[in-house]
Amino acid sequence: MPHISLKNLSIAYGHHRVLQDVTVNIPDKQITVIIGPSGCGKTTLLKSLNRLLDLNEDVKVTGDVLIDGVNTYDGNADILALRKKMGFLSQRPYPLPMSIYENIAFGPKVHRMSKDRIVQQINDLEGRMVQVPSKKNGQMDILVESYLRLAGLWEEVKDRLHTPASRLSIGQQQRLALARALAVEPEAILADEPTSALDPLSAQLIEKQFKFLKKNYTIVVVTHILRQARRIADYVIFLYLGELVEHGPAEKVFDNPSDERTRAYVSGEIS
Amino acid sequence: MDLRKFKDTFSTLSIRLSLVFVNTLAFVIAIILYIKAKPILVKVSLSHLLFSTSWHPIRGDFGFFPFIIGTLGVTAIAMILAVPVCLLSAIYLSEYAHKRFRAFVRLVVDILAGIPSVIYGLCGVIAIVPLVRFLGQAIGSPTTGYSLLAGGIILAIMVAPVIISVALEVFRTIPQAARENSLALGITTWEMIKHVILRSSLHGIIAAIVLGFARAFGETIAVLMVVGNVAKIPDSFFAPAYPLPALIANNYGEMMSIPLYDSALMFSALLLMLVVGGFSLAAHIILLRIERRGYA
Amino acid sequence: MRARRIEETIFKGLMLASLVLVLIMLAGIIVITVYKGAPALTLSMLVETPKGGYYLGKEGGIANAIVGSLLLALGASFCSILIAIPVAFGLQKEYTSWRYAGFTKLVLDVLWGTPSIVYGAFGFVVMVYFGLRASLLGGIIVLTLLMLPIMVRSMEEIIRTIPLELKEISYAMGTTKIETTLAVVLRQALPGIVTAVLLAFGRGIGDAASILFTAGYTDFIPRSIFDPVASLPLAVFFQIGTPIPEVQERAYASALVLLLIVLCVSLISRILSHRFSKNIVR
């Protein structure tokens, strides 16, 4: 049973249908890339996974989004727990209006992570027993450091942890966003065109980070950059005008697509 | 976990209640004023209240016409003086002035919009009243200076910051491309302003004027200090007048001792609230539309 | 072409003249207040309350009015903040439908436009009904009504500009509405909220018509919220009305004090909003 699976999912904004009857299983601990022309429902699909769509008005969702077997659109579903499970990276990396340190500590604090949990998390991250100071703040310090290391940002910011996060470069902000998302201990990471606002070098760093992280996380990336999809994808979902045209392992979809539209899109005839 | 959800539910509830409170408040104010005004509305017809010139509270005779004329008079003078000058200033700031100068004037205007009306009134007493007295004597209509004209001038100065800042904001919402496209046709900046800026910001200009009007219409203390307060229809600009807000302010004290007097004054307060509230509502609806559409 | 150029020159001249006229008029207000007020402003004016024969030009000062105005405006600011912040938060779409939020905003526009004399009349009627005398409490209540719409509207204007994506990120971490509101919205809007509070404070401290019959006037500094209280705008208003030059001088001094307070508040708001904006995300 995969972590995330969609069954007959249809989504409409008012009378405008954005997604129609999407059924797909998203494989665990791989990078799944959602591709397709702009306006085909990629972001909507992604945001349906953690119910961020709820923030929009007039959204109608039918069908099931099963996360660990629980239908998230069930009225009793615990949205907060669901969102905790799904880390999220947005198109433009908005740092929260706080310092770098607080950006990372925000999630663990909100979720009232216990001392033991924090210590265990640190040990898991470092892969060894770390000497953890008993002071509460000491533990948080190490946690922040660990996640910043995990996102490949520590060396650049270790001397200015308490300066406003908004002063970081945009590429650093996106890696901060990654560290921040990881700090709530998600099982999956959802990324909405995470490199579209970044310079090529920062984009490369993020891609590298994704490949590194897929050992432990299920990663879903929306992108409209085909070459990026080819570089990082293990599994590909191709959407066209709200319809799920094709999905499968990356080699299959890119090299031997079964649908004419997929072939046209991956060969660059339509965009 | 439960505590977090409890906090959320609780705060959501109190936040929604606060919205209900504000909405109720507005209606409560209007309804209470209406209830207090009812005795006089029952006894005297609305048209008599609005159009009779006879004002003798002791005899139970309440004709608001002189006060309505007083209010409309000072407001009209203020608008006639302020609107052209303010609009021309706003156009200059928006289209010709350097960015830094515009920011500076905006700052000055913002600060002046916050100066208490009693200070405007004081300056009116010190400077405008003698000026009007001098003017009146110069053209052969002797006056104390405390007059319709003095009230109008001081109001014109008071509404200037409002009109300028709203108009400027409206002009600045017009996209630069609209300017570039028309200037590219080889017309002068002034022609561009006439045909593009003014035409496309017509609604916003109206909103700016209406907001200024609303401000002037309800202004109390500053006008009260310079307008003379004589309950008679003024026969010239140099004659004293008696606007509605001043009437309320001057008679709060004794209104409880004369029958129906309080009711009459609450009627005028209700009138003020409805007129001014209605006008500022209209202006904000226009501005909201402009904001949504980018520019009108 | 020449006619067109001449037309432009004429209008440009008119515009410049208008702008200069407006600026002179507005600067005139400040210049007159300072010019008239400065000579009359002595230390004893600031620290003494009126003594016997004060209103005939004898000894005393306006400390009662200064303290009274500050008490009124601080009290009313405090009450307004308590109501305005939840209302401003509540206008976000997480808390209410856009229809109801839109309706509330229109109601706030009406309240915002309502002349202060109307609030004064309303407050007076209500106080008479409850048998309350003109007092600090009455003044604070009426000023709260006056300041509330000013505060909410300018807070809402700031909160509305917060990008939805920023809130999305916070929600995506599994936060509740109130957690996101306090951690993200409040911080992001803090400079705007400070500005809104100080703007409303400035309006409140300068308003005369609303407190004319709800706060009363007294020569003493109030000892409880049920005592009447003096205020600077009314000090100006009453003292300019007397024929005695010495007392009129005091009106000028009171006006200058009031002007200085308002200008300081405006300055402080600019400095504070700059200071609080370091964490702001643009």
Supply the key terms.
heterotrimer; A: 271 residues; alpha/beta; Rossmann fold; 2 domains; four-stranded antiparallel sheet; 11 helices; C: 282 residues; mainly alpha; MetI-like fold; 10 helices; 73% helix; 0% strand
List the topology elements:
The complex is a heterotrimer of chains A (271), B (296) and C (282).
Chain A: E1 4-13, E2 16-26, E3 31-35, H1 42-49, E4 59-67, E5 70-71, H2 79-85, E6 86-89, H3 100-110, H4 115-126, H5 136-150, H6 154-157, H7 170-182, E7 188-192, H8 200-213, E8 218-222, H9 226-232, E9 235-240, E10 243-249, H10 250-255, H11 260-266
Parallel strand pairs in A: 3-8, 3-9, 6-7, 7-8
Antiparallel strand pairs in A: 1-2, 1-4, 4-5, 9-10
Helix pairs in contact in A: 3-7, 4-5, 5-7, 7-8
Chain B: H1 2-43, H2 46-51, E1 55-56, E2 61-62, H3 65-96, H4 99-113, H5 117-138, H6 148-172, H7 176-183, H8 189-200, H9 202-218, H10 221-226, H11 244-251, H12 261-293
Helix pairs in contact in B: 1-12, 3-6, 3-9, 4-6, 5-6, 6-9, 7-8, 9-12, 11-12
Chain C: H1 2-40, H2 43-47, H3 63-90, H4 98-113, H5 116-129, H6 136-160, H7 164-172, H8 177-206, H9 232-240, H10 245-275
Helix pairs in contact in C: 1-10, 3-6, 3-8, 3-9, 4-6, 5-6, 6-8, 7-8, 8-10, 9-10
